[in-house]
Design brief:
This protein is mainly α. It has 4 helices and no strands. Helix 1 packs antiparallel against helix 2 and helix 3 packs across helix 4. It has a domain of 85 residues. It comes from Photobacterium phosphoreum.
């Protein structure tokens, strides 16, 4: 399923990368040709949250977001999936993985710059 959101290309790329990581996780650990219902529901949840993000164009990557919109159980599940998948994803799709990491670094820099601006105006 392709979901096109009204946000930036970066957030769409982040969504596609996370979906691919969840698929890799499910295919490897749950050992099925077809995705299990748990991983499928996680993908749907992530799509719903990313496409409905209230921050819009100002959205940092979900990893570095100030106001987490994931439920705590889903957030822990995503952290587990990403920690397990990232090293393996890097070997399968090195350019996508590097792009994902660079987007996260840019997001941290943007968040730090915004925090500095807010601190100066307060």
């Amino acid at each position: 399923m392709i979901v096109i959101n009204n946000h930036s290309v970066r957030s769409q790329r982040e969504l596609n990368t996370v979906k691919a990581m969840i698929r890799l996780y499910c295919k490897t650990l749950h050992r099925g040709a077809v995705m299990c219902s748990e991983c499928e529901s996680l993908i749907e949840y992530v799509e719903e949250r990313v496409t409905g993000c209230r921050l819009g164009e100002e959205k940092p990557s979900c990893v570095h977001c100030i106001g987490h919109c994931y439920q705590s159980a889903k957030r822990l599940q995503m952290i587990h999936v990403l920690r397990w998948t990232y090293p393996r994803y890097f070997w399968r799709h090195p350019f996508r993985a590097i792009h994902f990491k660079l987007d996260n670094l840019r997001s941290v820099q943007m968040s730090a710059a915004k925090a500095n601006i807010l601190a100066k105006t307060s």
